Every structure is written in C-alpha cells, then in structure tokens.
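Dear colleague,

Thank you for sharing your sequence with our group. We've completed the structure prediction you requested, and as agreed, I am returning the results in plain text so they can be pasted directly into your records. Please verify that the sequence below matches your submission; if there's any discrepancy, let me know and we will rerun it promptly.
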Amino acid sequence: MATQMAREWVGIQQFPDATQNKLFELLGKLKQENVDSLTILVLGKSGMGKSSTINSVIGERVVSVSAFQSEGPRPVMVSRSRAGFTLNIIDTPGLVEGGYVNDRALHIIKSFLLNRTIDILLYVDRLDTYRVDTLDRQIIKAITDGFGKAIWNRAAVVLSHAQLSPPDGLSYEDFVAKRSEALLKVVRQGARIKKQDTLASSIPVVLVENTGRCTRSDEHEKILPDGVAWIPNLVKVITEVVLNGSKGILVDERLVEGPNPNERGKYLMPLIWAAQFLLWKQLRGSIKQDIAREDKPAWELRDKVVTPRKFS
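Please find the predicted structure tokens below.
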C-alpha cells in the first residue's frame, strides 16, 4: 500500500483540557517505549459505531457516517501526526452481507493492509445489543483465520452506545459485565482460545458513546454512566495492549493469499517417499519368502509335459 502523508492532528485541540492532558501523557508513555506510531485496525459489523468512534478519537469528522447510506466498499486510512507521534486508524466495511460473513470484504481489507503491521485490533460491537448468536462466532472465526490467532493478543473489544439505562432493574455495572462476558465467550469460541490460555482473560472491553447524549463532567469531558471519561480511557487501553509484550501482526503476501496447499504438500513428500520405500521393501521381502517356500518354481510346473503312463 502506498505511503500516506499524515496531516497535523489538529482535532486533539478541540478536546477539553483534562482530556488533552491525559492523551498527551499516554502518547508520551508510548514514545518513552520507542513507539512513535500506531496503526489501529477497526473491524465489526455494519452499524456498530466503527466510523463514529474513529471520528470521536480523532476529534474531526474524518470518515462519513450516515444511517441512510451503506458503508464504503473499501477500507479508509486516517493518518494524523502530533509532536512526533503518528496515529493511523483504518476504517473498514462491515464484515456481514446478506446474513453471512463477507469473505470478500475481509480479503479486500487484508490486501489494503499489505506490508503494514497491525499494532492493535479494535473489534466494535454495541452494548445495547443483548444477544450473541452463531453469526458473531463466525465473524470471530473469519478474523482469526484471516489474521491468525495471535491477532487477539493485540485486540480490544469496543462496545458503543454505552449511554443507556439497563433493563430488568440491573445495575449499570452488572449489565456491562454480563454483556461483556457474553461477547468475550463468543470471541474465545470463534478464536479457539482455551480456558487455560492466558489470552482468555486478557482481552479488554472498552465502552464508548459517540452520540450527543453522552454526559459531560464538570471538566467538560465526555463521561459514561459509571463516571469514566471514555476517550482517554480508550486510548489508555490501546496503550496497555500495545505495550503488553506481544508482537504486532505483519500483513505480508502469505497472510493475504492464505496458505498454499502446494507448499503444504511439498513438506509431506519426503514422508510419502519414505513410506513407499518401506512398503516396497516389505513387499519384495514377502515375495522372496514365498519363492523360497515353493518346491519348484511355478513356471517350471506350468511348462512340464505330463507323459501318460502305460499299463501292461
């Protein structure tokens, strides 16, 4: 993919001072660890709030959002630079079409990312969606098959539409915990993460609210019903994931095209040849043993002329 020039991150200046200070502190922490750029991949179904979350984090309307228009067919990368730090966020089309996982969209996304390293995956869903189903698990499986299981070492689950009143008299904290666990269970199943795997409990869940209904604190920060200022909290979680000791995911040609069955067969050829050699050796030994047990060769018995006996 061609290199894209990063524009100045002027949108950060529209945040309240408290939010700006937290963001600069987090960016400084990354730079202290020699991380001067981040590439964030945002995936999920359509209508989950992917584009709106990107606009909120950048502080500008950098990708279009409309309830009456379908998403673009191709990914879009937004690059912003501030104080020697570059942020690349990649918005993507929804991974579901016609009730099925859109494998073509996933291939287009991988091709778009060719020769780039994914520093973190944000998998976006909605907090106010109460159920998970087989399709959710299929989406996670498709992501895992497409990018490898290691992608979940560099992932966070983002739940949008977090400004809500829980149903059935549940507290906000209990509702968030139940919804988060239900979705994480699907992630573990779709990604084939075992319970004893440390990855099973290390994928963080972050809440966001992109609409104008979001409450403001006394310092004018956007806060959720639990009192958390969500924009700096999202960046904080991103920072923690990036610095967790795992490696980013390099999207090379092999990852884009998938495993080559011919290449897999090539590694099996020595085993096949060895098996054939042993089989032939065993058969040859059996033939020799059969010949040795015969009184006379079969060809001699076949060609022998039988002379009739004379009776006097």
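Summary note from our side: The longest strand covers residues 37-44.

Kind regards,
the structure core
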